[in-house]
Amino acid sequence: MSDMQYTYLGNTGLEVSRFCLGCMNFGSGADWMMNDRDASLELLDHALDAGINFLDTANAYSRGESEEIVGEAIADRDRDELAIATKVYFPMGDGPNKSGLSRKHILDQARASLDRLGTDYIDLYQIHRWDDHVPIEETLSALDHLVDEGLVRYVGASTMSAYQFTKALYTADVENLERFACMQPEYNAVDRHEEANLLPVCEGEDIGVIPWSPLAGGFLTGKYERDSSIPAGTRAETDKYTSNRFSDENWDVLDEIRDIAEKKDATPAQVSLAWLLHKPVVDAPIVGPRSIEHLDENLAALDIDLTPDDIERIEAPKTPRWPAPGKD
Questions:
Q1: Coil, strand, or helix at residue 5?
Q2: Pick the catalytic residue: 61, 89, 125, 224?
Q3: Which residues, in sequence order, are CB contacts of 42 under 8 Å at separation 6+?
Q4: Where are the domains of the chain?
Q5: What are the distances in angstroms from CA 137 to CA 144, 170, 228?
Q6: How far apart are CA 214 and CA 285, in angstroms?
Q7: Are 91 and 129 in contact (CB under 8 A)?
Q8: How large is the average pLDDT for residues 47-64?
Q9: Are strands 122-127 and 152-158 parallel, antiparallel or unpaired?
Q10: What band does 324 get if pLDDT is binned at 50, 70 and 90?
């Protein structure tokens, strides 16, 4: 197993592992989730033992079950070493005030997340999406309050337009409110639309970047084949978002990745993750393995060195543009 590497998140002093463990798989629900609490805890323990100190979950993941599992996993760990991230926005029940980014919902859900995580504070509290119905001043004020109360250390955001993110940063500066320190965008070798949207803002403002879906929902693992039927039990079988990635140019990217992987005695997943790790704007890709074997495979990407020619080959078939075709 590779020795873990660490970096600072954006321009903060928060030290995080170069891989963040995504915890959406922990809980019950869809077939692609682990649906096994004991196995989830075993995987979390293995990740923590391997040096991963950065865990990302959300209140909406299995309606809080993921946070509960994370809380159980970290209960006997050195809390000071860990960076625990969670998110707020999506519905947590039926009826009014159960979703969004109102002051009420944010404050209510922050305390609920703290209870489920079994901790006194959240290291990184992120808005899961932009809320068109709530003034950004209200959202930022609520987040600022949580920081002032010592319940949150840093605040972050995920998945929005560059205009929205820039507006939030400007508003925080003008109103003297807590500024977003981190952005969580979709970013991988076949989903590169953020190179024409959020990533230039993050680079210019020294914002931490922790990409979600670094393996494109499994597409970049190489488990799918061009012109073949989708294997039963895989995510693409039931998730149209994943199957929509099966375009000619994406297959061309994967062909290059497979060839590079073969020459380096690596796997397509490892080369794909190494491509992200070679991006200066990226701090910690969020990996979401469903087994210890997959996690160990992911961690081995830390040892893979890509040449400029390798990177050029991977990037050549795609032209980043916003909005991305087929993305809502």
A1: coil
A2: 61
A3: 292
A4: 13-183
A5: 10, 11, 50
A6: 6
A7: no
A8: 97
A9: parallel
A10: confident
Q: Establish whether the linkage from the previous residue to 211 is cis, with ω within 30° of 0.
A: no
Enumerate the β-bridge partners of residue 209: 183
Cβ atoms of residues 276 and 214 within 8 Å? yes
Q: Is 163 a catalytic residue?
A: no
**308, two tokens:** 């400029």
* 59 token code pair: 């209140």
- By DSSP bridging, strand 6-8 and strand 15-17 are antiparallel
Q: What is the pLDDT of residues 9-39, one digit of tens each?
A: 999 999 999 999 999 999 888 777 788 999 9
CATH architecture, domain 13-183: Alpha-Beta Barrel (3.20)
3-state class of 295 per DSSP? Answer: helix
**Do 189 and 249 touch, CB atoms closer than 8 A?**
no
What's the CA gap between 16 and 14, in Å, rounded? 6
Residue with tokens 């998110």: 87
